[in-house]
Amino acid sequence: MTISANRKTSTIKVVIGLVFILLSTGGLSAQRTHAQETGQTLFEITAQGRTVSDVLLELRDRYSVPLAWDPLLVSGKRVFCVTQDADFNEILRCVLSGTGLVYEIQQTGTYTIRMAVQGEPQYGNLLGLVVETQSGQPIPHAEVKLYASVDSRGRMANDEGIFQFEKILPGSYLMRVHHVGYAPRDSLINISPGGDERMVVHLNAMVTPMDLAIVNGMAVRPSSRLGLSVADQEEVVRNMDIGTLAVLRSIDAMPGVRVNDANADVHIQGGGMGELQYQLDGVPVFMPLNVAAFIGPFSPFALKSITVHKAGFNASRGSQLSGVISAEHDLSQPHPSGTVGGRNQFVVQVDPISTNGRFNAHWGEKYGPDGTFMTAARIGTWDIGAPKSLQTLLANWNTIDTFLLSAFADQNSPFADLPPTGEASVQFFDWHNALKIRFNGFKTLSVSSYWGTSSLGNDLSPSGLLNENNSDDPFTPAPATDLETYRDIYSWQSGAAQATYSSVMNNRTTGSLKMRGSYYRLSHDFVAPDSIALSTSEDDGNRIFELGLEGKLHYNPGHGHFLDFGTELIVTATKFVVAGTQLIPLRYESTEPRLATFVQDRIEVGSNTVIEAGARFTYVGARQTVYAEPRLSARFDWKSTVFGDIALYVATGIYRQYVSQFDISSRSPRTFVRSTRFWMATDYSVEPAQAGHLAAEVMVSPSSLWTFRLEAHYKKLYHLLTLDYSAEYVSAPGPIQQAESQSEFLNSTSGRAYGFGVVADRSIGVGNVSLRYDYSQSERVVQGLFNNQMVSVPWNEPHRIEAAIDIVPIPHMIFSTRWKSIFGRTWGYRQAYYDFLGSHLNDVESLIKQLQANGVSSSAATRIENQIDRYDLTNPDGHHLPATHQLDFTVAYTFPFNKFGIQVRADMVNVLNTQNVSEWRFELDENSYYGAGASSASGFLNRTDRPLLPRVFTLAAKVTW
User: Fold this and answer.
1) Side-chain half-sphere exposure of 512, counting CA atoms within 13 A
2) Cβ atoms of 593 and 547 closer than 8 Å
3) Closest by CA position to 81, among listed 66, 108, 59, 104
4) φ, ψ for residue 117 (rounded to 5)?
5) Which residues contact 322 (CB under 8 A, 6 or more apart)?
């Protein structure tokens, strides 16, 4: 093929040139000419018997025209074309004449070759599933791209690993599938006219992670990791520490999330424990009150990951004021070879507080129906091997609180004669089961369940107590009194179960149907000697049961839109009796239905922007009202800027809550049983709680070694529900009457929460180093309290600094260390003190009169009044707790064998044995209280510290086979 840029030649020169080229190249000649009239570039071509592929290749290379074609499409076809004074389009039509092929000019100017069809092209469709070869589990958000001249485009697999291409031009395509941490897989696929192709793609895990890539805006964007925090199973197990803290430690390490060191309550960006929801496989879990902060929820070996959805979460995540903690069961298949071998796998770990076990199995063919099953259990062994330091800590928490004992003496409470000492017994058990059956990859049935139980009991020995009634002199110690044995046992149960069927309905739509159920039960068994007359029953009962039926649809209409729809019918039934050990004796029962729907659209705008708009609509049957919750977010990704890769996330929305959790402060003088927890759905008498979120987060990666993250949030708490300790219903004398409505014992509050967090991560080759700072402020206004002024919340931690190092110094060894410091805590005293005063709206004079009317002795009432005045108990923001500091170490080594893996692990919590303080309480010191008589007696209870975890050293062993 000869090309020249000369003017149009004479006929003789053309003939000579054609003869020469035919003899030398086998029949192809083309010449560029310029029309003298217009200056337009014209061509001459002669091609006899050359292959279409060769001609197209020479046209593309010589004229620098963007040409694209499928080699299989043009295979075997030859060109017979002679023309002159033609533009490029005419030349191309001449080349393709008689081949059954035509060309199209794309918007980008690219010429693409396709088969000629009569009328509208018969497009095909492609539906696929991406799974991990080793585990057989779907790989969510894998990147899929089709390469071909006729049609090139990218897609991203959804959460179930399913990807879809619709309206594809017929032809052959090279399909490349890849994901971070997996080797890419290339496949050649053929799309027939009007055909629907289905396939399963298997990816092999890689040791060296791949770089993130964006495929036509459809890949896993770095910004998709913003607005939430995720801990995978490896991180959860690494954070086991004492042996049972894995879940809580993993959550506590997330920016903006705080776990109370004393009671293990979780707070997301300033929100209360009752303003979030635990979910397991999408099912709500009603989490019992944690009476021992070193015992976390769930069996860590049963979980695949834990995700905390923070401010600005989307409409599909539900209705909660603060956020959602979502855990997933681990249904990975046993590795077919290596250290564990076979198709089944056992894992057992023993530590001083618990024993964890897990079994999982897989059956089925690689490309056919298959199933995966997992069962895991955890049982407490506190009575067998609890470290002495933890036993001492729990005994300290079990010390009698003399202030509360005095406040509720005599007829008002059985605790007038409660023994001041006793040994606590802690028991707990968790059992997880999960099953997933995949039918041909596109129809899946998953079933899972969880059941957990825990109990706390006292072995109360006979003892003597302060005598409030038999002596007129409050500074005279009471004689010892022999008491019979008490029984004081708290028992909790919680459970959740679900069954989900999901299916690909067509090439644009997937759907799922879920049935779920959750329950919770508390029983408090309290028995006192017959010699003590009780005016109220001490048996607390608390039950909640929730059933739900949920349907979801995911529809891909094209043009960058991805729609999700969902509808859920929910029924919540609750019944509880909160009896004499609490500040509010309550009895209530209700069954409330509601219907919730949501719709959201994720819109891909260009290659670096994703906008997500959605809303939830909930019909509350008790109020016959529909509540709307609109939400909007945007994600941006910019690669290779002067600052490196940048990801940005902004979100806002309205959030309501229809099932509320409440903790009623206990007047029990024992510290670890601080409250009674119950849940109930909103009834007709109160409006559902409401909050507005504004969140932003940015992540900057200047290199592969450094990552910086900054997140900020502001929450306007328009309407919250809180317990009204001063309600007339609560103050009514006599037996506990059933409340007719929630408005009888609930109050409306408002407030705000705001803060920011900064995280710096540095890869050091053998591991990772991170530094984090959080600032948080959360404030509330409670009607009738603190002059209706805004005050901070008891769980607020204004300043938090944390540093962590995780390294692999040698093969098979892991070393981790973590430092945490917290500054600025207030509300220093036990929460029951503040609620005790709040029941009288902080009016001390009214409180004293009420106590005396209830039979509390004058001496006790005097001591209470003096104690309140001396320590200014009506000013919680003025009670500043000291800073806490804690350093933890972990080292683990794995001994690999042929079919076994044995890991030995050593943990030390609070290495420096820092004397951290959870809160203050009042205790009786007889030497100072009584002195040598009335003249030298102080008459005041001493303020003492409730300590947090001391130095604790534990060893654990894990066996895998």
Assistant:
1) 22
2) no
3) 59
4) -130, 155
5) 267, 268, 269, 270, 271, 272, 275, 276, 691, 715
One domain, residues 712 and 839: yes
Angle at 364 between CA 359 and CA 368, to 5 degrees: 140
Give the DSSP per-residue string, 211-255: PP--STT-S--GGGGTTEEEEEHHHHHHT-TTTT-HHHHHHHTST
The model's pTM is 0.78
Give dist(CA 468, CA 415) in Å, integer.
12
CATH number where 102 lies: 3.55.50.30
| Cα–Cα distance for residue pair 77/351, rounded to 1 Å | 72
Residues 169 and 36 both lie in one domain: no
Per-residue confidence (pLDDT) for residue 3, from 0 to 100:
36
Q: Which of 58, 86, 115 is the last residue of a domain?
A: 115
Q: In this structure, are 756 and 889 located in the same domain?
A: yes
Nearest to 850 by CA among 473, 474, 408: 408
Evaluated on CA atoms 574, 578, 583, 584, the torsion sign reads positive
User: How big is the CA angle at 785 (ends 784 and 786), to the nearest 5 degrees?
Assistant: 130
Which of 708, 624, 674 is CA-nearest to residue 833?
674
In a domain, 418, yes or no: yes
Contact 284, 496 (CB under 8 A): yes
Q: Which of 833, 757, 927 is closest to 226 using CA atoms?
A: 757
* Cβ partners under 8 Å of residue 10, min gap 6: none
**What residues contact 606, with CB distance under 8 A and at least 6 apart?**
217
Integer angstrom CA distances of residue 495 from 240, 455, 510, 540, 591: 23, 15, 29, 20, 19
Give Rg (Cα) of the chain: 35
In this structure, is residue 234 part of a structural domain?
A: no
d(CA 266, CA 250): 12
Query: pLDDT for 346-394, tens place per residue?
Result: 889 888 888 899 998 888 765 567 788 999 999 988 888 788 888 888 8
- pLDDT band for 560, please (50, 70, 90 cuts): confident
User: pLDDT tens, 574-601?
Assistant: 988 876 555 567 788 899 999 999 999 9
Spatial separation of the C-alpha atoms in residues 427 and 454, rounded to whole Å? 5
Please tell me which residue, 293 or 581, carries the higher pLDDT value. Answer: 293
Asked if residue 110 and residue 133 are part of one domain, the reply reads: no
Q: What is the CATH number of the domain that holds 293?
A: 2.40.170.20
Residue 236 falls inside a structural domain? no
Under 8 Å between Cβ of 161 and 139: yes
Using DSSP, state whether 363 is helix, strand or coil.
Answer: strand
Alpha helix (H) ranges present in 218-366?
Answer: 233-238, 246-252
**Residue 497 — pLDDT band, cuts 50, 70, 90?**
very high
The mean-pLDDT minimum among 537-546, 740-749, 793-802, 886-895 falls in 537-546
Under the banding of pLDDT at 50, 70 and 90, the label for residue 416 is: very low
- Helix 858-871 vs helix 844-853: crossing angle, to nearest 10: 160
Q: What is the CATH number of the domain that holds 212?
A: 2.60.40.1120
Query: 288 with 273: CB under 8 angstroms?
Result: no
Structural domain of 55: 11-115
In terms of Cα–Cα distance, which of 949, 954, 952 is closest to 263? 949
User: CA dihedral in degrees (922, 928, 933, 936; nearest 10)?
Assistant: -120
Whether the CB-CB separation of 542 and 522 falls below 8 Å is answered with yes
- pLDDT higher than threshold 70 for residue 328: yes
Are residues 183 and 57 both part of a single domain?
no
Q: Are residues 840 and 943 in the same domain?
A: yes
Domain stops at, among 115, 144, 179: 115
